[in-house]
Fold each of these.
Amino acid sequence: MDNHIYGIRPLIEAIEKGDIPEKVLIQKGLQGENYLRLFSMVRKLKIPFQQVPIEKLNRVAKKNHQGIVAFLPVIEYGSLEVLLPDVFNSGGLPLLVILDGITDVRNLGAIARSAECAGAHAIVIPTKGGAAVNADAMKTSAGALSRISVCREESILQAIAFIQECGIRVIACDEKGSVPVYNASLTGPVALVVGAEDKGISPAVRKMSDQVVSIPMKGRIASLNVSVATGIILFETLRQRNVNIQ
């Protein structure tokens, strides 16, 4: 199914009936009364947008775009404020995966697949600056993105603060971590943070985390692919718990 909206008026009508896009591409230099109305709506609703050359729109669009291409969500996003009380009330032991700076949709999909297989309750992603949950991510996840809750938060730092207030330890996973993951305690409620391959965990997230762990390695290559590393840590969590996650 095509999750794009093409054109100014169709996007205005979609927004008015509650179909809020994840992102809007706008042709540079676009003008006119309807465009100004649309742009005001986009800014008011804080919809991420990018002004691009017409050539980029021509590559993306399958139809006459009239200078506008919008991307609709392919899943329904969850909320930490709703999810976590439900997990606690059901007697579950929270297990979350927080993505800090992951921009590759294939890594997002692979992480979602591992997280769903490990019984994680949710993946937490940023509203801006992260990989999009698109068709490629869905395909790589083998359907996991349709089965696991994906909580999209305005600020990863604020999300971490809320998670910690709920009594959940935040464990950052980084090759520079001083504690081997096999020596860390993962038996209680935990949220695992993984970062981008090029930069790793951001300094602000590292500072907020309760602990920073690493995966011991013997080879010459400095790091693992982030989705592989996430899978290792998720299943180490299951090994330590030795129970089925509810």
Note: The chain has nine helices and eleven strands.
Amino acid sequence: MRVGLQIPRFHWAGGPARTAETLAAIARTADDAGVASIWLMDHFFQIRSVGKAEEEMLEAYTTLGFLAAHTRRARLGTLVSGVHYRHPGVLVKQVTTLDVLSQGRAWLGIGAGWYERESRGLGVPFPPRAQRFQRLEETLRIAHAMWGSGPVEPIYGKQFQLAEPINSPPPVSRPRPPILVGGGGEHKTLRLVARYADACNLFTRYGPGELAWKLNVLQGYCEEYGRPYSEIDRTSLGQWDPVRKSPAAIVDELGKLHEMGFTTAIASLRDVEKLEPLEILAREVIPQAERL
């Protein structure tokens, strides 16, 4: 069982003048602790469940480049990018650049998006839900094409038209950077995971019964497309407080997730900027998780 870290908040002591110093310390400590991956929310405003919209929020891909310079082994990605934020050709170039500069550690994390307030606030078009899902599937196809080994050919879809999708340099990851599609929608999202992605991501707040059901739905789609279910990295997203909560309880939670069929547990950590939560993970959680 792999453990990943999500960093959803940058509201730290010292304000912007110390943000870079604090984030670099978190990244180095997490990398040394043995986390398999480090993830950022891709938002421009803070989300309601974490803080006020006006709170500090760094742009994700600039920040991932910073993290690449301060880590050596952890993979890096967004959890996840709303498909309407960036043109798919530009997004593929961004992830490719991250992959090259991190020496093959980038993920493409993507989803249909939902946070209308930040889009309206910054003037980013926010299409209806059905159109966003159309864009999501086309973006996944474009990523596969631009990261493929075939000749450069135009890509003309209903939502996007790329006359010359050159992607040079190519990514370091082979055969390409892995793709995570976030969300638990049983009619569209999990079907897209089975068809195009290397990983899904489900919230632990769904509860054991619903989580198990969604994994079962995903397995059914894999069978429909003739794809081994074992190829999919089944990731969960939760929140941990290893300082105030027994690390043994976190290990127990990991064991239950593993029994359900999850292969990676990603979590945000309360007071991560103090580094103690990461140090506890390194001593008392990650070694146990690796044995599952």
Note: Residues 2-289 form a domain with the TIM Barrel fold (CATH 3.20.20.30).
